[in-house]
Design a protein that fits this description.
The complex is a heterodimer of chains A (291) and B (285).
Chain A (H helix, E strand, L loop, with lengths): L1 H43 L2 H4 L3 E2 L4 E2 L2 H32 L4 H15 L2 H22 L9 H26 L2 H9 L4 H30 L2 H6 L17 H8 L6 H33 L1
Antiparallel strand pairs in A: 1-2
Helix pairs in contact in A: 1-11, 3-6, 3-8, 4-6, 5-6, 6-8, 7-8, 8-11, 10-11
Chain B lengths: L1 H45 L5 H5 L13 H31 L4 H15 L2 H16 L4 H26 L2 H9 L4 H12 L1 H16 L26 H9 L4 H31 L4
Helix pairs in contact in B: 1-11, 3-4, 3-6, 3-9, 3-10, 4-6, 5-6, 6-9, 7-8, 9-11, 10-11
Chain lengths: 291, 285
């Protein structure tokens, strides 16, 4: 009897230990980022975030161009993706929520979500960038091809499946009774969507968009390959720039001074805080919805 | 007169309804186009390159054509193997804890922690593993790359394990306990085996996800032009090789990148299809 009890308590404690280990891992992530970036924050204070000059050779590290670059590409991508992801969500959640075509389409969208970032970037580099270059020639802009717009395009394609899948679930959760009541009053499908489905599901749909934004901010490889890697403040939607993630991918392995490394880790911390906040907001919205 | 007005309005309503429906169909079609473009691009360029030499030989130096990517293929398998052995025990245990101790304080904190970890951008994971593992060990290594990938796998496995175990009927556990089995025996011999299919599916999905991860490997596993099986030395991987060769200016390297992208996509596709087949074929609860 005693032996059984011991085995049991041992088992419970080892599970608890594993749980604590996972929690510890997350604490370690936060600790390493704060600790690693303390040198940069001590040296520059708030001007680390507001400074516009990033020049490793002169030892000046201001990260505003990359914060702006990250936010600009992510929001532009979001803007481009919303009509498409909402269409997919409406199609799968409302127009065809059963049947063979819907099942095939669902798998296709899942497939799109499963393609690795680096392959998106590879494709974008050889196909999307020439297309953007062609557009730029028509618009009389220097045809560089790579830049914020190209990055936002590929990002938009990558995040469509995420906001679509969450919005689809939300649209499916709208009570059938509500919709049927509207149909019974003679509403068309569009009116049901506009006046019943979207108002009921709006916070969930918004939450899906937030989570997609979090993903877009942290996306690295595809963006790195097509954004043009330029360390100055972007002045147009087509200008080559850098996001926080693409800067880290490009420069971290070759950072030589401790202040340089510390500044890059500081940017990692900024990115971590931004995505964590956005994810947290999105999850809160979803949780409030499911209650 | 009024009747005509109403008829006109009805016609307008129906027209708008149809317009929106067709634009939804159209936008859905456009949204899925990149999938065909990407697969078409990778397979049409890559499939002709795949042959025995490509899969079994090392990359040649610039200027020489031919060569293969055996270093990246073995490296990817090796890294994913390390990641799995780090993440599976932790993820399954954490998921079991979340489902068994639902509502307890530690479970709530664990749930939050897993959510945070799931949201950490993969490049930031790379940074953290660089500071935690690469710096203290004094250099890039396969083990650090594996740990980075493992950290990305943990939240996925945890959540899928939790979801699976939550779905199991309570009576299953009660029956086992009523027969006099201890709690540990119940969890290990009844609960986990009953949820095994779901857990394995989650593991396969997470493997498919990290197999294509590049960002966390850039400053952990780094890269290696040779086949390496020493966990303390740098190792190459398919995604990192695709990145490095795709942005290079050499046509021969682009060729290798296309072939590698083809291998990687096929591998990920196979993992996804297998996990889907498994979950359809063997889902008991």
């Amino acid at each position: 009897m005693n032996k059984v009890l011991n085995f049991d308590t041992g088992f419970v404690w080892s599970m608890r230990l594993m749980a604590l280990l996972v929690i510890g891992l997350v604490v370690a992530v936060g600790y390493v980022l704060v600790q690693g970036s303390s040198e940069a924050f001590q040296k520059f204070g708030l001007s680390f975030i507001t400074g516009r000059e990033w020049d490793p050779i002169m030892g000046s590290y201001g990260s505003l161009p990359f914060i702006v670059g990250s936010l600009l590409t992510a929001f532009l991508a979001l803007l481009i993706s919303i009509p498409f992801s909402m269409s997919i969500a409406l199609y799968l959640g409302e127009f065809a929520n059963k049947g063979k075509i819907s099942a095939i389409f669902t798998s296709l969208v899942e497939l799109l979500a499963g393609i690795p970032s680096v392959i998106y970037g590879f494709w974008a580099l050889f196909y999307l960038v020439p297309v953007v270059r062609w557009i730029q020639e028509r618009l009389d802009i220097p045809p560089i091809g790579v830049g914020i717009f190209s990055a936002a395009l590929i990002l938009a394609i990558m995040i469509i499946p995420f906001s679509a899948s969450i919005a689809r679930e939300v649209i499916r959760m709208v009570p059938v009774g509500l919709k049927e009541a509207a149909y019974a009053l003679g509403a068309t499908r569009l009116e049901v969507i506009k006046d019943v489905v979207l108002p009921v599901g709006k916070s969930g749909i918004f939450a899906g968009i937030m989570l997609a934004l979090g993903r877009a901010l942290g996306e690295t490889m595809a963006v790195t390959m097509v954004i043009g890697n330029n360390n100055i403040m972007p002045d147009s939607l087509f200008s080559p720039a850098n996001t926080i993630a693409s800067l880290l991918a490009n420069e971290f392995a070759e950072a030589d001074s401790s202040l340089y490394v510390s500044s890059l880790v500081g940017l990692g911390l900024v990115l971590f805080v931004m995505t964590a906040l956005i994810n947290f907001l999105g999850k809160m919205l979803i949780r409030r919805l499911s209650k | 007169m009024k009747l005509v007005n109403r008829k006109r309005r009805t016609a307008r309503r129906y027209f708008l309804d149809r317009l929106v429906r067709y634009s939804v169909y159209f936008l859905c079609g456009v949204a899925i186009l990149p999938l065909f473009f990407i697969f078409g691009f990778i397979f049409s360029k890559g499939i002709t390159i795949l042959d025995w030499e490509f899969l079994t030989s090392l990359p040649k130096s610039i200027g020489e054509s031919g060569g293969g990517v055996v270093n990246a293929i073995t490296g990817s398998l090796y890294l994913v193997g390390i990641a799995a052995s780090v993440a599976i025990p932790l993820g399954v245990a954490a998921g079991t804890y979340l489902s068994e101790y639902r509502g307890s304080k530690l479970a709530n904190i664990l749930g939050q922690a897993v959510d945070v970890l799931n949201g950490v951008p993969s490049i930031v994971i790379g940074l953290v593993v660089y500071e935690l593992v690469v710096l203290p060990m004094g250099g890039f290594s396969a083990i650090s790359g594996g740990i980075a990938l493992g950290m990305i796998m943990i939240p996925v496995i945890t959540r899928s394990t939790e979801e699976t175990l939550k779905m199991l009927p309570k009576s299953l556990k009660e029956a086992s306990l009523a027969l006099g089995a201890s709690y540990a025996t119940t969890v290990l011999r009844v609960v986990l085996p009953a949820g095994l299919t779901g857990i394995i599916t989650g593991i396969l999905v997470s493997l498919a996800r990290v197999a294509g991860e590049t960002a966390p490997l850039l400053f952990t596993a780094f890269g290696n032009p040779f086949v390496n099986l020493d966990p303390l030395k740098p190792v190459s991987s398919l995604p990192a090789l695709i990145f490095n060769y795709a942005v290079s200016p050499y046509e021969d390297w682009h060729r290798l990148a296309w072939g590698s992208a083809c291998v990687l996509l096929l591998g990920i596709l196979a993992l996804n299809l297998f996990s889907r087949w498994l979950s359809r074929r063997y889902r008991w609860y």
